[in-house]
Amino acid sequence: MAGQLKRPRRELRDRIEREVKKRWQPQVRARARRRAATTDGLVVSTRARVGFTAAPGTTDDARIRDIIQALPPEFAGQLFTARAQGATEHQLQQIASDGLARMYFRADNTRARGPGVEVTDIEQIEIQLWSPGTR
Fold this sequence. Notes:
By secondary structure, the protein is α+β, with helices and mostly antiparallel strands.
């Protein structure tokens, strides 16, 4: 149809667009996952009940918290690997919880090493690829 039409018919245009997306999107997603697992990491935004395993009588009772935290690439890699291997939703949430415990509560394991952090009753959780404007 070269030279006959200035614009393809709607049906042809939609078909071309579908084919391009079918081949292009998996490559873009794979590249983004690779970048998150090796250099960029992820951002977790959650509203959940968070508490600490601590000595009796302390004030570390669980309470609902809104947390937005960047996680390093190792947690992105763990999440992607677990998902590809068919991990359950609970297992994926546990990986994200471990990352939040380490980065948010223990400041990348530089403080508060003693108490165990417990994340339960997750009301919402959103995990995004990190981009320079997110931190």
